[in-house]
Amino acid sequence: MIRKVQIGLLGLGTVGTGVVKALRENSGHILSQLGVSIEINKILVKDVEKERRVEVEALQLITDGSLIVDDPEIDIVVEVMGGIVPAYTLVKKALESGKHVVTANKELLAKRGQELLQLATDRHVHLLYEASVGGGIPVIRTLQAYLSANRVSSLRGILNGTCNYILTQMAEQGSSFVSALAQAQAAGFAEADPTNDVEGLDASYKLMILASMAFPVTSGELQVQRQGITEINEVDMTVAKKMDGVIKLVAEASYDGESVTLSVGPQMIPNSDPLARIRDEFNAVLIQADVVGDLLLVGKGAGERPTASAVIEDMMAILQSDNPRFRKPIDPWTPNDSTQQGESSRSWSYLRIKRDKLQEESLLEAVTSKFSSHGADERLPLMLHANHHASDDILMLVPVSSTLLSDWLKEKNARDWLVLPFKGELSYEKGKVVTHFSEAIS
Ligand SMILES: NC(=O)c1ccc[n+]([C@@H]2O[C@H](COP(=O)([O-])OP(=O)(O)OC[C@H]3O[C@@H](n4cnc5c(N)ncnc54)[C@H](OP(=O)(O)O)[C@@H]3O)[C@@H](O)[C@H]2O)c1
After folding, report:
1. 204 close to ligand 1 (CB < 6 Angstrom)
2. Which of 44, 192, 307, 392: CA 20 to 30 A from 292?
3. pLDDT grade for 340, boundaries at 50, 70 and 90
4. Could you report the per-residue pLDDT of 396-421, keeping only the tens digit for each?
């Protein structure tokens, strides 16, 4: 006899529509794989009159979520509405009622994940969230199920497709930030209000979720040092290109055995970096673990079909297993030397500062004297000149980490500056730094 499973869908936007379409298209395949027929019982929306991109006449659109989470007929609740209110209350009630939940909501997971995962464990139900990070890329399952014998020391990735699309347009087409954002909106990669994406919030939520899976911490304990991409301009792009590199919004998490360090922000990285090749709306996650080594996962990080795929695979995982995997139990561990992280003694930062905002030329001298290292490894700040458009800006490479440089500029009350970590290739020849930047002087 065919087993019927009832689904309650919270949301029928981009992802919800993809889920309905894919379930219909692949119902025969799912039946042959699991012997289960998945039926969508009810769908929560805000506006029942709204025109839909999928035929829902036969389905029941509702505006009261309790009709789903309190319905004893419904086995799995799929939350694809986004935000905290009312998603948090509905997911909590669904778990309390003994229903499995699948969600794509990174904000909910980053802010309330610890509590909801504990509730799911207590109620012996699943809360799965593959779609919340990297869209269709199976990164959560990889960390959870395929690296459980590994100790992960760091994660680096491009976790926001909107920013990556914008930065790709700026690098390859010479677009300004504003016009690249407009292109991203026209192509459907950016929301009308892009703040969460371009200010790095979306990537921060995703990084917190990944870090809480890879390291012995919970998302509630994590702080992310965050910088968006709105300040990046054509001059910065030109400098990156001349240095054989690109600017990417990089999310990074590392664990040194005691604490976890998380950051999201634009970085100038060399073209040899695997993340430099990730273009347009694609996402990537580079996992460094002690047994497997480096693992790079790449794919579409958003969109109707990739995200629906992750949601449906979570539903399949629930249906497939009577004794499913919950979050990987993580024991504290001591890293070996090769996994030790820390402030690199060879860090460099890219600094752009408005010439008219320097207050006095003395700031420039102060940067130079403050951040010149002495001794055998003498490293001096390098002046860069990108092109004639850059006449208003002072461009420098400074031999210090971006965190230290930013803190120091804030202390000095300097205004209108941009600091990016610079990870490009620099080499030393007879005490001088050689760059690929034709007009660099040292
Ligand atoms: N879009 C992507 O590519 C993508 C990728 C990965 C993860 N996600 C995550 O997936 C979730 C959904 O994203 P989406 O892009 O599909 O969002 P969306 O297109 O804005 O759709 C949201 C849906 O939820 C409904 N909804 C929102 N608030 C509601 C409320 N208070 N009461 C009742 N219904 C409500 C809306 O109803 P109406 O249709 O009536 O307005 C709409 O159907 C988010 O957490 C997002 O971060 C999205």
Report:
1. no
2. 307
3. very low
4. 899 899 999 999 999 888 888 999 99
Atom of ligand 1 nearest to the CA of 105: 45
Which protein residue has the closest C-alpha to ligand 1 atom 18? 13
User: Where residue 237 falls among pLDDT bands split at 50, 70, 90?
Assistant: very high
As its CATH architecture, domain 3-128 has: 3-Layer(aba) Sandwich (3.40)
Mean pLDDT, residues 58-77 taken together:
92
Query: What is the pTM assigned to this prediction?
Result: 0.86
Say what the pLDDT of residue 24 is. Answer: 94
| Mean pLDDT calculated for residue range 55-60 | 76
Assess whether the C-beta atom of 335 lies below 6 angstroms from ligand 1: no
Single out the catalytic residue among 206, 241, 300, 423. Answer: 206
Question: Ligand 1: which residue has its CA nearest to atom 27?
Answer: 81
206 is catalytic: yes
Identify the CATH class of 139-301+331-339: alpha beta
Domain ranges of the chain: 3-128, 139-301+331-339, 348-434
Computed over every residue of the chain, the mean pLDDT equals: 87
